[in-house]
Batch of 4 targets.
Target 1
Amino acid sequence: MKNDLRQKLHLEPKKGWLNDPNGLSFFGGAYRVYFQYSPDSPYGDGDKCWGYFEGRDLLDWKYMGAVIRPDIREDINGVYSGSGLVRGDKLYLFYTGNVKEDGDYDYITCGRGANVILVTTTDGRHMSGKRVLLRNSDYPEYCSCHVRDPKVWEENGSYRMVLGARTLEDKGCVLFYRSDDLLDWHFEKSVGKDDLGYMWECPDVIRLGGRRFLSISPQGLPHGMYSHQNVYSAGYFAFDGEVPREFEEWDYGFDFYAPQSFTAPDGRTLLIGWMGIGDIPYKNPTAELGWQHCLTIPRELSVGKNGRIIQRPFRELGRLKKEPPVSIAQGENVTAKLPFCFASAACEDSFSLRLSDAVDVRTENGVFSLKFPDERAGGGRDIRRVKIGECRSLEVIADMTSLEIFINGGEKVMSTRFYPDETALTVAADGITGIIHELAEMRVMTDENG
C-alpha cells in the first residue's frame, strides 16, 4: 500500500508547521501538550502560535488547533516557547512574547523584545488575559536580546524559573529566577560553560532519582563525526546547582531538538522533543502536502548506573502491539507493515538491520550508525554515528515517516524522519535476531471549534 506519510504513533498538526513542545503537563484529568505552531504555512511563516493536543491518556488525543495567538504588543511577532505549572484548579502557562521593532537592527544586540508572559486556563484551551512578567530590562545587562523559553517549577516552598540566553559576548547561558507568587520574579544567577555555543535555548531542570540535571538546546557547537552532528544540538548536564558537568546529547539522530520534561500522574518523568530541527540542509516532503514536523513519542526517564539518563519508550505503547509477533532470524528477511516495533533477542559484535532499501542501521567496531542508502527516502539525510562500545540490545519504533532507535536499553537514542514509498517494508537481519510487532494506531480526533 502506498504511504500517505501521515503518522500513526506521533502527534503532528493537520496543516502548518510544528516545532518545540510547550506547556507539557497533566491537569484536570488529561495530558496537555502544547507546541510551537504556524498554522498558515508548512514552512513556519505567518503567525507563531501555540497549538494544542489534549489526551485522556497517551494514546487517545484531541487536536484543538491554535489556542494562544500573538495579539498584544508584547508578543506581536510570535508566541514563543514556554512551560506549564499546575496550581489548584488552574494551569499556569508561561511563554516568551517575541517583538521585532521596525528599523535597521541586527535583532541580536538591539531591536528585539523578549517578554515573559503568563496566561492561565481552567480547561486547557480557553485562556485568561495576558500578563507581562519580565521584559528586556529585567535581564542582566550582559545579555543580548535573545532571552527566551521559560521553564517554571515549584521547589522548597517557592517558584523557580530558568530562561535560555545569549550574552553580548556570544556565549550561551541559563538565567535563574525566583518568585513567591508566580508574578513577581527576581534574578538569582546565571550558569554557563565555556566553548559550548553562542545560545542556549529551551532550558529545563530535571530532578530524577535524587539527582538534578540541566537540559539545554545549544546553538553554535563545532560539529564532529560522533557528536554535535546536526545544525543545532540538544543535551544535558549533571548539575549540582552551580557548575554544569559533562555534556551528554539526548539524541544522536537527524531530527531531535528542544525537549521538555514533565511528570505523569503515576510519578514517571516523561520527555517529549521536537522531531525536527531548524535550518536543516535536508527536506521533509510532507511540506509539499501542507504540513511539516511532529513530536517524538513520550520517553520515560531514569538514571543509569553510570549516572547518565536512560530513555525508554513510554510503556503505553505496548498496548498497541498486534499479536502474534513475527520472529526474524539471522540472515532472514521478513515483511512488516508500518507502523511496527522491533526488539532484538541477540546481537553479534557486528550486525546490520536493513529496512527495504531505505534505511541501514549497523554496529561495527563499537560504532552504531544510521545511514540512508536511498537519499530520496531520507530527504537528503546521509549518516549519523554514535560510539557505544558493544551493542547489547536494540529497539526500533518505526512509524509511517519516522524511526526512534533505542540502543542498549536507552543509553543512546537516534531519531530520524524517513519517507518510504510503501507501508510494507522488507526487514533484513544480518548478525542480529529479534521480534517484530506490528502496531495499531493511536487515536487522534480533531476539535478546533470548542
Target 2
Amino acid sequence: MANFIDRQKERATLEKEYARSGSSLVILYGRRRVGKTTLISEFIKDKKALFYLASEESESQNRIAFQEKVADFINNDLLRAADIKSWDLLFKQIIDAKLPTKPVIVIDEFQYIGKSNSAFPSVFQRIWEEILKKQSVMVILCGSLISMMESQTLSYSSPLYGRRTAQIRLTQIPFRYYREFFPYNERRNLIEMYAVTGGVPKYIESFSNCSDIYQAIEDNVLNQNSYLYDEPNFLLQQEVSEIGSYFSIIRSIAAGNHKISAIASMLEVKVTSLSKYLQTLINLDILEREVPITEENPEKSKKGLYKIKDNYLRFWFAFIYPNRGFIESGNESFVLDKIQKGFISSQAAFVYEDVCREKMWELNANSSWPFCFSKVGRWWNSEEEIDIAALDPDGNNLILGECKFWQEPVGVSVLRSLEEKAYSVEWRKQKRKVWFILFSISGYTDELQQIAANRNDLILSE
C-alpha cells in the first residue's frame, strides 16, 4: 500500500498546529496498528523532526537512547559522549541549537516512560513549562495504550492536563475508503474484506494481496505464525489486568448474548459485577451500547444491547477463539469450512448494516430527502427489528430501512414487510411522515424498481 489514504482531517490538524506561532503540544493516541506512526511519518517527512520511539525499558535507558537521538538530531558529538542524568538538559540542547526551521519532537509510545516512572508526566510538565512552551517548537506525544495515554496526558489528574494545544484519537478508516485500497474488487468483496479487517491499516495491508476473503483468512488468520492469530490477546493484555474476565465477556457477546442479563447468566455472575468491565471495553472502542433510536433517554434506557464494535474482534471471537483446539491440532481446513458456512450470515451481513448506516450520513449530506435527519441507528421492540431508523425531530420525519446482504435481488416482499413493521414504531405516530430506504448488495427486482420509480418516499440504494 504505497499510497497514504484518508486521515485528511488529522493531517490538517497537525499542519495547523505546526503553523501555530510559538509552541504546540499535540497528544495523538489510538489502538495498535491503526496507523499513528505512519500518519506522523507522513507529516514530518518534509520537516526538521526528531522521532523517538520509547521502549518498555527503564526511564534511564529511555533517556540514554533519547540522548543519542538528540545528538544525531543537532549533530553534536560532545553531547553523544556526555554523561547526562537529566531530561531537561536534553530538551534544552534542542532549543539552544538554533535550528533553521521549527523543530518537531515526536515521542512515540510515550506511555512506556510514564509506566516505568509514574513521575515522568510531572517531569515533562516542568520541561514544557520551563523550556519548550515559550519557544518555536512542536511536540507530539503519541501512544498505543489508550487507558495509559488518557491517564498520563489527558485526565484531570494528569500534570499535563490543560497543556495540550490539540488532541487526536486516531480510529479505524471508514469503509468508504476501501475502494482506494482494493481498486479492482467488487463492492461485495470490499464489504467482506471490511467485515474482517475493520478499517485497521495493518490488517488491510495483510489482506491486500488476496482477492478472495477466505484465502485471506486462511493465510493471515488461521496461520498460527501470523500476528493476527493471537492479535486480540496482544491488544488486551496491556490495557487490562484481568484479561480472562474481559475475554469471557466478549466471547459471550460474540455468541449472541447482547443484553447484560444474558451476559451475566452465561458467565454465572451478578449483573452488577459486569458494569466496570463493560465500561472499560466501551472506553477502549471494543464494545458499544446500543438502544433503539427512538429512546428519549438513552443512558437510562433498559433496552440497551451490547455489541462488539471492532470488526476483527467480532470475527475472531465468533470463529477463531472457540475453534483454537481444531486449529492448533492441525485441522485448519475444518475451521475454514465452518467460517465459509457462517461468515455471511453471522459476520458480513451485520457489518453490511454498519456500512449502510454510514452511507445514510452521506445521503443526508447530499440532500437525498427534503429534510436532514439528526440521528440514525436501529429500532427494535420485543417482537420486531428494523435495521435502519433515522429521525428528524424538528420536521417529524422518520426514515426506516432494511439492509440485505443476499445473493439474489431484493423484491417487493421486503418493502411490504418493512411497511408493516413501521406500524410498530410508536414515535410521533399521529403527526409523523414515514420515508423508506432499502439497501441491497445484489440489486432489486424489476417490479420493485418500477414501484420505486413512482414513489417519492422510497429510495433504493446499494
Target 3
Amino acid sequence: MATQKEYYEKPVILRHTVGLTNKFGRNPATTPMKMIDGAHISKLIEDHGSPLYVVSEATLRRKYRDLKRAFESRYPTVQISYSFKTNYLSAICATLQDEGAFAEVVSFFEYEIAQRLNYSGQDIIFNGPDKSKEHLEVAVDSGSIINVDSMEEIALLEEIAKEKGKVIEIGIRLNMELNYPPWSRFGFNYENGQAFEAVKRAEINGLLKVVGLMTHAGTYVDDATIYQKMAIKYVEFYQAIHEKLGVTLKNIDIGGGFATINTLHQSWLPGSQTCPSFDDYADAVCPILLAGFARMGVTPPRLFMEPGRALVDEAMHLIATVISAKRLTTGEKGLVVDAGVNLLSSNQWYRYEFAVAQECGTMVENTNVFGNLCMNIDVLRSAVPLPALHRGDRIVVKNVGAYNFSQSLQFIQFRPAIVMVRLNGDVDLIRKREDTDYLLRLEAVPQDLKK
C-alpha cells in the first residue's frame, strides 16, 4: 500500500521578534476566524465554493442604525440615502431600504435597480454628471430629487419644464475648497461665485425652483473638521441666496465620504485608530448648521447624507483558498490564492486585514499574498504576517464591502457567488456564481465565422 508523502518545505532561518502578542498571549495573526455571524466558513465554502463573498446582515443594519442615531440625536430632520454605486447588490440595497434609507444614484442603471426594488421615485436622489434628457424626464415624472451638475443640465431641465408646463424643483451641486485636491469637476464652485450664478441662472426664467444644495467632501475623509468647514460654507451660501435671490431650502445634503476602519497604504496608524466615529461627524456638522439657520431665522432644511463605504465596508468579507505556497527568490514567503485583484480592486488603496480560517500554528512570517490571475500585478497584499498555510487552507479578507464587488470584473476567472448571513443564522444565496453561459449571453458571432 502506497504511503502519502508528508508535506515538505525546505527549512529557512527566520528572525522572530517579541512584542506582537495580545493580552491573551497569542499573536492576533494566528487566531483563526472560523465563523462569520455564526456561519462556519468551512460549511460556507462546502456549499457555495471558493472564492466567496459573505455579507453580514447584522453588521449592515447595525452600521445604518448607528449612523442614524448619531445624526438624529443632533438634528431635527435627517434622511440617510445609500450610495448605490458603492455596492449595488440588490439584497444590500433592499436591506438598507428596509431600514429606511433612500437611494442615491449616479447613473440610470442604478436608478432602474432602485425602481425594481420598489423604491418610490420621491425616495431616489439622482446625482452625477451624465443625465440624459430622457432619464431626467423619468426622474421629474417620478418626483425624484435631482441635484444639477452643470449649466447644460439646467438648460435640459428648462426644456422639460416648458414641455410639461410645470415648475421643476431642483438641487444645486456645489464644490468647495475643503481639502486637497478639491473635487472641482463636479457641480459649481462656491468660492469663485459659480454656485451663486448657477442658482441665479436656474431661478431667472421661473421654470426651475432651487430647493436644495448638495456637496461631497471626497472619499475616505478621516478628518471630521472637513465637515465643519463644509457646514460653515453652507450657512454662508444659504444666507447669500436667501437674502439676494429669495431662495428657501427644503434640503441640504452633506454627501458621503465617511471613513472606515480599513487602513490606507500611506497611513502610519491603523484605520481603527484614525477613523472618526459617526458621532464625530455629526458633532462637526449639526451644531454649526443649526446655529446658522437660527441666526437667519429659517426653518432647518431636511439634512441628507449619502454614505456608502461607511455602511457596507465592514458588512462584507471575501473568503479565498490557498492554491500553493512557495519561497520567492528574494527569500520571502509567497502564497497563491484563488481570488485575484479583479475581486479586490480597492486593495490599491487599503492594507486589508487578512485572517486565517483554521488553526495554523503560532509562528508567523511576513507573507506576500498573490491572486490567481497569471498577472504579475495580481498582488492582494505584501508582507502580511501569517502563519504557515498550505494548499486547501482558507483565508478571509475582511471588510471589503465598498466598491470591490461593484468594480469587479470577469478577468481570467468568473466572479464568485455571494451569500448573506441573515439575522436568524440562515445563509441565503444573493448572487449566483457566474459561468460561461452568463459571460457569453450578450455576444454574437457573425454567421460566416461560425465553425
Target 4
Amino acid sequence: MQLASSGGRRLRHAALVAGQHALDSGRIVTRKELSAAYRLAQEALGLRPTLRLVLSELVANWGEQPWERLLVWPSNEHLILRTGLSERALRVAFRALTDLGLIVPKDSPNGKRYAVRDAAGTTVDAFGFDLTPLYAQRESWAGRVAELKAERQRIKRAFDEITIARRATEEAIDALRETYPQMWRPEMEQEYDALLARTPRRGTAMPPVGLLDAWSTLRCTVERSFFHAGNGGTTCRHNKDNNDSSSETCYSGFRKDEGGEAVPDGGRSASAGSSGSQDEPPEHEVQEHEVQEHEVQEHEVRETMTAAGRTEPGGRVRPSPGAAAQAEPVGGLAADLVPAAIREACPATMAYGRPARTPSEVVALGAFLRPMLGANETVWTEAVASIGPLRAAVAVIYVTQLYEDDLNRGGDSRIRNPGGYLRAFVRMVASGKIDLAADLLAMRRRRMGT
C-alpha cells in the first residue's frame, strides 16, 4: 500500500516521516480510540480552530476496517458541507496537518479520493488520507499534554504566590500607615507601585524572573517595620536574656536587703549601663514612640475607670468609697499586708505558679508578668524609678488582673494594648492621679463580695 504522495502534490518531508509510523498487527482501531488520540493531539499541539474542525471530520469518517493503515476518503463536497469552510481553506488545512505529521495524503492517479473494491464489493484499499500517524503517536501526545498541564500548574502557583505577597504587602502598608504613622515611609508605597507596574496579568507565560522575590522582600520589610513598631523598637516582646536556672526569676534588677525587702541593685545597673548591653534598646529609640502613644493609653485608662464609676469632675480618678479611711498612700501601706492583698484581689495572677508570700516575691512576680503584658522593659525601669519596685510590681499585677477581667467579660475589649496601658497607668500613679493602694483594696473588696 502507498505511504506517501504519488504525484500531483508536492512531496513533503513531514509526510515521509509520518508514513514510517505503523499499527500493531492484528488489531482493529476503533473510532473511539482514534477520537481520543485526536483530542490528545489537538491539546498537545494547540491546533487552531480550523485545523481541529477538519481533523475531527476526518476522524469521524474512519470505518474501523481491519487494515494496516487508517485510511479515510471523504470528498471535498462532504467536508465543505460538514465544516462550512471553502475549498481553498480545506486545502490550506490539509497542508498544515501534513506538515504537523498528523496525516499523510495518499493520492489516486486522477487526484480523486475514493475506495477500491474487489469483485464481491468489499473495500480492500482507498485513496485519501492516512490517519495512522495521528493514532501511532498517541503516547507522545499524552506525554506532551502532561508536560503542558504541569507547566500551567507552575505558572498558576507562581501567580498565586505573587498575588498572596502583593495583597499581604498592601495590607501591611495600610496597617502600618494607620496604626504607626511615625514608622511609615513613602518609599515603601513607591516601591509597591513600581512592583505593581511590573506585575503582568495572569497568562500562559511565567512571570518575570525575580518578581516573586521582590514582592516577598518588600512584604518582609513592611511586616518587620510593623512588628518592631508594635514592640517599641525591639526584636521581641521579652527581650531580657535569662540563662540561669529555671527556678530563678526573669528579673535581676533588684536584690534583697537584710530585711528581705527588694531594693534597686545600683552596682549591677551601673555596670550594665556602662557595658552597653545589646539586649536592651537605647532609651532614645523608644521615647518618640512612648510620647505619641501616652495620651492614647491614658485615655484608655480613664475609659476603664469611667466604666467602673471611678472618676471625679475634672478627670481625676476618684478613689473607691472609704478608701481614704482604709488605706494611706501606697508608700504608707504596710509591706507585710501587700502579699495577702495581692492574693485576694488578683487571683488570676496566682495561676502562673509564682509565689507571692513576701514583698520580694511580689516584686519578682511583677517582673515575671511584665513581658506577658507585652510591655517593654523600659516600662518596668520607668516604673521602678518613679514609684519604687514594690509599687511597680503591684501596678503590673493590678493591670494584669484588669486585663484578665476585661477578656473574660467578653464583647469589645477596653484595654486594646495592655503594655501601653501599663505605661500610662504607672505614670498616672506617679503623678497622683490614681491611688494604687485604694484601687487594690477596692478590687479585693469586689472580689470577696464585701
